Amino acid sequence: MAGDGNNETDRRLYATVGLVVVGAVVVLGKACVTLAGRPAVPGRLGLTILAMAATICLATRLMIFVRIRSERLGFSTVNAAILVGSMLLPWPWLVLCVAAGVTGAMIWLRVRRIQAIWNPAKDVVAVATAVAVTGALHLWGPYQPNLHALGPIVAGALTLAAVDDLLGNVVIATATRTSLRSRLAANWDIRLGGVLARLVLAIAAIYLIALAPTLVLGIPPLILGVYPLVASRLRQRSEREAWTLLAQSTDEFNTVDLAAVLAAAVRRAATLFSADDVEVEVRLPDRPARLVRGDATGIGYDGDPDGAPAVPGNVLAEALASHDGKAEAGQVRLRFRHKVALNEREKYVLRTFAAALCTAIRNAAAFAETRQLSDAHAHAAAHDVLTGLYNRRYLFEAGARTLTQPGTTGVVGMLLIDLNQFKHINDALGHTSGDKVLREVALRLQVNAHPDDLVVRLGGDEFAVVFTGLAAPALAVPRSRALLSGLASPMQIDGMHIVVQASAGVALAPGHGGMQELLRRADVAMYCAKREGQGIALYTEELDTADLERLTLQADLPRAVRERQFSLEFQPVVDLGTGEVVSAEALARWHHPRQGAVSPAMFIGAVERSGLLPAFSAAVLDEALNAAATLRMAGHPLPIAVNVSPRSLLDPTFPDQVERALEAANVPPEALIVELTETLTLSQMDVVEDVLDALENLGVRIALDDFGTGYSSLTTLARVPVHELKIDRAFITDMANPTQAAVVRSTIDLGRSLSLMVVAEGVESEEQRRVLWEMGCPAGQGHLFARSMPLPRLLDTLARGYAGRPGALAPVLHDSGSVIRLPRRNPPADPPQRRDEIG
């Protein structure tokens, strides 16, 4: 602390002063003993003694004072008077004159006690040293001015100046806690000039007295006449140094580091204003207050102003304000242990210093704010806002460095994680709960990951972990399994236990392609794990075949749509009781010029992502309605069901497109059934409701495909104008299971209660057909009746029929009139009321 340093300084200062005082007392005692055995003072010597004592007193009284902290140290022409006295008086009388004259001046000036003791003691010791040196050199003369006294004068002047300067600078260096060397080097030219000037004055005075002894009375005006010149020179030098220090201080303020600005301000102010202690208090809008306190040697406190320890002393404060006085940033305070008054020049320098410091503080604060914003933007650019993990951008930046860094040791790998059925959590619990799940997943990955691993959220429900420094490639999968196991335990989200399942792919760093290729390989492995129902899969080249094929197909899509390489096949829907065909579902097929028939699973998703969906949908719709027209002309007025992508339902012009297609094919609206995949469209119902209402108003029938596989089928029924339910094949295949059979029965009963057509998908056997018929299911679709086929073959199949019954594909299960059949569509005059309008 600065205060502790001041106490130590005081002890050293008082020790130095005390040592010099003891030396002065010894000299004065010896002088008194020497004079005690001598005869009475003659009149002429007495006059000289009085003149010299008066001269020394006046020279000391007119000294130029310099403040060091709260102490005032003086500089005068008293040494010139002492030099003259050394040629006129015996040394005992000389030291007594010096002691009496300097002490009288101190009393006259009313200085503090320590100064009143220090200054006479210093001068007495300096005079005694000079007398000892000249005596040792046998230069001490006959106590009268003559031409032969030049040697003693010069030797005495140099010794007196050296001792006086040394003792004075020792005290100043101790008080200011600066080095003695720096003090001796400061203003050496002024001090040397003063020594020479006093020497010239002393020689001139001595030779004047040699010419006429009565001129001894002219010594005081002669010696004191140089006072204005010396005072002017010292003041000029002091002001020049002050402005130089101020310029150096403001130069140190040219930094954007606020801590450096405040530290420099404290150190520089302590030196510039010779203060015992300096503190700068900063108060800026929207920033915490800050107090920095210290002295020329360093900082003692930096923190909250309210927590700063109290320090006693006399404080001079100046507001940290701009030159126009409008903007304030706090205060700079100079603390002195005793009362100090600054002169006008010091006050002006303080105001200038405070204004420059205010500007520097505001510049540093503005830069800090800009830096914070820049850091915030850089953080936001590299981090995911929701989870705080690194994002995809940072993955490629840091990952590229990891893969190319020469010092990287071990194997680099990647784990790519995709949460299964995460959309269901969002739709069932809301996006707020979904966000909580993502944050919990991110936290678990961070906790369980190796400290050197890079955990990233790629977007949505996809996460990646980059492994660095794997000792062996085989360790990638065990480490990945450990991370996935950390996700397996239930999560507490809004009071509910949620278990998150994930599919993951693992890949090792490739020899080429960098992070982009590593991510692609992990993605291939992850989709393999998802398709195969595995928790995790390791990338191999064999897995990449399908993906390369998919990429090739995706490149060929624009040409395929443009050249109408797609065709439709049709799978009949049969009345379970009579075996008659009641409708047909259109299924798109791609006949690739090189690869032949391509499964819809290979290209439908690519079509939806490519921007080709409107053209593709239009082509499928046109061909399906043209097939319906052909069937009608052949005597089979069957409606055609077309699967519609959720993306098409997001297009408000889609109903107009359907209407134009119906007119172009010249078929009624009931010839078209639009099939919706319930698990894909539920989260977008708010958007597609208007489109579905418009389709219903046209008279187009709407079927809900894969019913029962979603988690909110009843909600869908309440919001969508459904005419038909299609039970997913998974329930039909496993009807031997009582639970699955109960779901099928409930769905059939629900359809009956809502007057909806119910179609069972995946009917493969007569037993399944009969069980469904006995449950009351009116229609079915599956390989028992027919596989999908091109339109010409469908026409032939319908014409041929079953057992001589055209349009039938299976035998009748009941006698005529023994079963009351469900209506296949809602009565046009009284459409079913929307569930959200009931009650």
Which secondary-structure class do the elements indicate? alpha/beta
Query: What is the CATH H-level superfamily of the largest domain?
Result: EAL domain
Regarding CATH, which class of the largest domain? Alpha Beta
Portion of residues in beta strands equals 15-25%
Per DSSP, the total helix count is 29
Strand numbers in spatial order across the main sheet: 15-16-18-19-20-21-22-23
Taking pLDDT < 50 over at least 5 consecutive residues as the criterion, the unreliable ranges are 68-73, 138-147, 678-683, 816-839
Number of separate strands? 23
Total individual domains: 4
Mean pLDDT: 79
Question: Helix proportion of residues, in percent?
Answer: 40-55%
Globally, the shape reads rod-shaped
Instruction: Give the C-alpha Rg.
Output: 53 Å
- Head-to-tail CA distance between termini: 81 Å
Oligomer: single chain
Fold blueprint:
Blueprint (H helix, E strand, L loop, with lengths): L1 H35 L6 H19 L2 E5 L2 E5 L2 H11 L2 H19 L3 H24 L13 H27 L3 H6 L2 H24 L7 H6 L2 H26 L5 H15 L4 E6 L7 E6 L2 E6 L10 E8 L6 E9 L7 H39 L9 H13 L6 E9 L2 H8 L1 H18 L5 E6 L2 E9 L5 H13 L2 E3 L2 E3 L3 E7 L5 H19 L3 E3 L5 H19 L3 E10 L5 E12 L3 E3 L1 H11 L2 H21 L6 E4 L2 H4 L4 H12 L6 E6 H4 L3 H14 L2 E7 L5 H7 L4 E4 L1 H5 L4 H16 L3 E5 L4 H10 L3 E3 L9 H10 L39
Parallel strand pairs: 13-14, 16-18, 18-19, 19-20, 20-21, 21-22, 22-23
Antiparallel strand pairs: 1-2, 3-4, 3-7, 4-5, 6-7, 8-10, 8-13, 9-10, 11-12, 15-16, 15-23, 16-17
Helix pairs in contact: 1-4, 1-5, 1-6, 2-3, 2-4, 3-6, 3-8, 4-5, 5-6, 6-8, 10-11, 10-12, 11-12, 14-15, 15-16, 18-19, 20-22, 22-24
